[in-house]
Amino acid sequence: MSKSLGRSQESSSELGDGYIKRRTTVIQRGGGPGSMSSSYGYSRQSHYGGGLNLAPGTYATMSHEGVSNMKDKRQHEKKEMQSLNERLGSYIEKVRFLEACITQLEQELEIYRNQKATDFKPIRDMYENELAQARKVIDELSAEKGGYDAKMAGLQDLVDTLRREVSSLEEHCNEYRTKIDNQASQIGGYEGELATLRLRIENLENENAKLRQLNNQRSEENRRLRTDLDGETAAHIEADCRASTLEEEVEFLRAILDKMPNETRQPVKIKGLDLEAFWQNNMAKAIRDIQNEYENRLDLMRQDMETRYSAQIRQVQSGAVRDNMETQHAKEESKKLKSQINSTSARFAELEARIAALESEKAALKQQLAMAENELDAERTAHNADNMRLQTELEGVLSELQLILDAKLSLELEIACYRQLLEGEENRLGLKQVVEQAIGYQSKGATNLSNIVSGGSSGGSSSTHTSSHTAGGGSSGTTVKTTTTTIKSSSSSGGRYN
């Protein structure tokens, strides 16, 4: 074998990495001369040819994958065999256990067959009394449950009424909140208008102050003009007085000159010149000139003063009229703004009082709502506690009833079996079928009762089903009467509180 492997390696090394032209592998196995008669041998010859370009190690990988698949398959078959062996062992144990049970039952049957007939009436009466008491307890619990259901319905109606009242109160609260928001926005608008009016009043007061200042300036100017006018009038009067004084003096001097005696006059006579006439003419002319000039000046001064006085009077009168009009307009505006401010203040006070009343009403409604919620929570807690207590009591009664019914069912089955056995049924096949059916119906009845009682929190009815089953064949059949009582109790979960 080593020689053949060496030859195969040499042939593969001679070919190199090129195309595999031809490859021959021969493996021979055989027993030696001292081997047993069951020696074996086989020959494998593989031919590869063609133009395949395979990487080195490909065949080793393929063989390794085949071995791995074979190992996995063997392991899977091993696990299947182990599971089948376990199932077979469990089946054998079950068969042995059933055979032991059958043997035990046969022994017990033989014992009961050898015994005398026993009266089971006291036991039946005892269980019937217990069942009657259980039914009475169930009826009492049903009546109590009906009362609690009615009370729960009343509480549910009360809860619905309170919920409607709460919803109506919430609607009123939302309406009041909307009204409060609207009134707050109106108050904001009124405050804005009030601020605008105050600003306008300040502007008008500033304008009024400016007008007062201007009026004071004009009054001061009028006072100054009156002072100037009084001075000019005094000067005019003084000039008139001086003119009258001078006229009187001239008249006095003229009278004196007229009264002077002629003899005292010593006129200077100049030849060809009359001095008296000359003096009188010149004097009268000078006086007339002075008087004319004085009168002209007085007329000019009078006209100037009258013009200036009339102009200033007109200006003062027009300014006073304008100032009076502006002052009157400002007073009217101020009165109007004051009336608006007073009305706005009254409206603002009224709105504040209304807001305070709404706030107090809102606080009272909130307090009532909190009290109603507290009462509702207290009633809900008490109702849930009563419901849980009743549910616990009902579950306890149902569990006791389940135990009683299981015991009753098993006893009825045993009584039926023993009655049939004691009446003379000795057929082994029939006995075996009776026992198997009794055991099956007992386990089935217990399962049904457990399912019914466990699901009793979703229903509220009670029913009894009686069925008869015949075991055995022919005339020697055994009739087994089973009674299944189904009790469904509805758990009063009460109204759901949202």
TrEMBL record:
Cellular component terms per the entry's GO annotation: intermediate filament; nuclear lamina
Residue ranges with Low complexity bias: 452-470, 477-498
SMART domains with a match to the protein in the record: Filament (SM01391)
Signal peptide positions on this chain: none
Bias (Polar residues) ranges: 1-14
Region described as Disordered: spans on this chain: 1-43, 452-498
Start and end residues of each IF rod domain: 77-429
GO molecular function, one term: structural constituent of cytoskeleton
Entries under InterPro entries matching the protein: IF_conserved, IF_rod_dom
Coiled coil ranges: 67-224, 334-382
Annotated family: Belongs to the intermediate filament family.
Protein name according to UniProt: IF rod domain-containing protein
Protein's organism: Patella caerulea (Rayed Mediterranean limpet)
